[in-house]
Amino acid sequence: MPIFPAVDPIPLPAPVWLLKLLHIVTLSLHFVAVEMLLGGLLLAVLLSLFRRSPLALLTARAVARRLTVVMTFVINLAVPPLLFSQVLYGRALYTSSVLIGLYWISIIGILMLTYWLLYRFTARLEAGRSAWWVGLTAWLLAGSVARLLSTNMTLMLRPEVWQKMYSSSAMGAYLPTGDPTLTPRWLLMMTGGLFIGGLWLVYLAGRSTFTAEEKKFVAGLGGKVAAGFGLVYLAAGFWAASVQPEAVKLGLASDPLYRFAGFAGYGWLVLVVVAVLVGAVAGFGKVSAGWLGWTGALVVVLTEIMFVVYRDGVRDLTLLSKGYNVWDRVVVTNWGVVGLFLVLFVVGLGVMGWLVSVVARATKTMEGAA
Ligand code: HEM
Question: CB of 139 within 8 A of CB of 45?
Fold first, then answer.
């Protein structure tokens, strides 16, 4: 019996390389937003515990106010990569999604609860009330969504366990066990949150809505967190790569693109080290200059692109070793539709740029203002 379900008879409407390119770009942006949410929220929760420190509370409020907006980016930037990965990997991804169906569908409810808690967390901070437990609950829920996503993204690579799981329960009520790649992969995303959350603070410290004293505090704290957790993130990256099957490791080391993106070609590695240095300069020198924040932001986006390319290699090579070749599809490109899509894509980016410029030009209130 074939290990993967039969391929859809409808051909792909666009070349595989184009779908992959769009997938990598949009997923990288999803990951930037996810890391800001996971890291920014935890930092805000921890800072809110220092109720006697006006600077800590001000920073917690400044981050919390932005988190509900970040959440909209997490979700909106998640839909495009979901669609692209379903088109490219549907036979594997739909199967794994059905196998953990109850948990998979529960993500919608968990997300709504998280979103509501984020608003409550911000409102309680603004009112000067104790808020840490509300924020912590939201963080735990967001972390569990991350865990479910890692579970599905690794289960889709293990067709050998699907049959047994389905025989145990056709209700989608079991979570898979025994995959050594799952926890390192999830922890890589979780530690990346504090790393990128720290750099986000360095970026915020460059905003004119903070006073000079506040800027020093925010840059100093964010920079130290980024530098410290950058190193933890590096260690988690090595761990996640080291637990991959040998065939996958060999493929990653011999393919020029994955060599460049990952460790052997130092793409991801160099970028994380640069980001750690940015954090160290901001953290120990208490430098809040705008250019430093922008450098950190640029490095973060590039780091996520490298990470997503490498991660894509892990998926393609794992599936290939089990007989699933993502490039092996019938393509009948509908250039009219592809052209229309690309035009709308660019227009959409333009509208987002315009929205950001409107926000940037709006009258600013100081972070400390009531
Ligand atoms: C609190 C909200 C969310 C968090 C914390 C989160 C976190 C994550 C994490 C950690 C991963 C990487 C999993 C791995 O490969 O190990 C991931 C991937 C992904 N997420 Fe999100 N996510 C969130 C919301 C969403 C939503 C709402 C959607 C769908 C509409 C979504 C779609 C995806 C997709 C499609 C991928 C993987 C794409 C691929 O590999 O092709 N995420 N997310």
Answer: yes
92 lines ligand 1 (CB under 6 A): no
Whether residue 1 is predicted with pLDDT greater than 70 in this model: the reply is no
Query: Distance between CA atoms of 353 and 370, rounded to whole angstroms?
Result: 29
Q: Is the CB of 75 under 6 A from ligand 1?
A: yes
Q: How far apart are CA 203 and CA 197, in angstroms?
A: 10
Tell me: pLDDT of 360 over 90: no
> Helices 79-99 & 290-321, crossing angle to 10 degrees?
40
Angle between helices 246-254 and 290-321 (to 10 degrees): 120
Q: What is the mean pLDDT of residues 184-198?
A: 98
Residue 235 tokens read as 């260690």
The single residue listed with the structure tokens 């890692």 is 150
Task: Provide the phi-psi class of 12: left if phi over 0, else alpha when psi is between -120 and 50, else beta.
Answer: beta
Mean pLDDT of 181-187: 98
Main-chain dihedrals φ then ψ at residue 9, nearest 5 degrees: -65, -20
The pLDDT-based confidence of 265 (bands split at 50, 70, 90) is: low
Ligand 1 centroid distance, CA of 83 (Å):
12
* Ligand 1 centroid to residue 81 C-alpha, Å: 9
Give the ligand 1 atom nearest the CA of 147.
10
- Tell me if 296 sits within 8 A of 275, measured CB to CB: yes
State residue 169's pLDDT score. 86
Per-residue pLDDT reduced to its tens digit, 138-174 = 999 999 999 999 999 999 999 999 999 999 988 999 9
DSSP element (H, E) containing 61? helix 54-76
Q: Find the radius of gyration of the CA atoms of the chain.
A: 22
- What's at 163, amino acid-wise? Q
For residue 263, what pLDDT is reported?
A: 63
Tell me the CA–centroid distance for residue 187 and ligand 1, in Å. 14
Q: What distance in Å separates the CA atoms of residue 220 and residue 199, rounded to the nearest whole number? A: 11
The pLDDT tens digits for 40-54 are 999 999 999 999 999
272 within ligand 1 shell (Cβ under 6 A): no
- Tokens linked to 20: 């992959």
Structure tokens at 296: 């950190």
Ramachandran angles phi, psi of 231, nearest 5°: -70, -40
